[in-house]
Amino acid sequence: MWVLLEERIQKCVRAACVDATALSTVDCAAYSFCIGDAAACSAAPLAARKEDFSCSDCQFELNVQLPFLTPAQFLLAPAGALFQADDLCSRGGPLLSELPSPSSSMRLSDALLRLTRTSPASCEAFSWGDVSPAE
User: Fold this and answer.
1) How many CA atoms lie within 13 A of 128 on its CB side?
2) Which of 47, 105, 113, 125 could tie 89 with a disulfide, CB 3.0–4.6 Å?
3) Is this structure's pTM higher than 0.90?
4) Pairing of strands 68-69, 34-35
């Protein structure tokens, strides 16, 4: 699934950029991250409850090697902690403190990325309720 997404992005970039060469690429992994919609959420067990897929969020991230954030990490963090100016981007712009929202010259903060580097063992730190990451 991730490879198909990367291929689609490459095609769209080449189609949108008049001066793009056939060799132009976008580093999707450098600017991508996952937010697990069910990660770290616990629910009271119900007899007729559907199967819980919260572990699949973390496992998908591990398989494609992307930074993984819980909804709380992403939504409760101030914008200054989430994003930073992208030194690799050639577009100049205002300082981070002057930006009302992330722009195309911003990327996920290195400090936040260090916190989200996960291993299979780190998935166990979440509250998985009655489901474990090993299932």
Assistant:
1) 18
2) 105
3) no
4) parallel
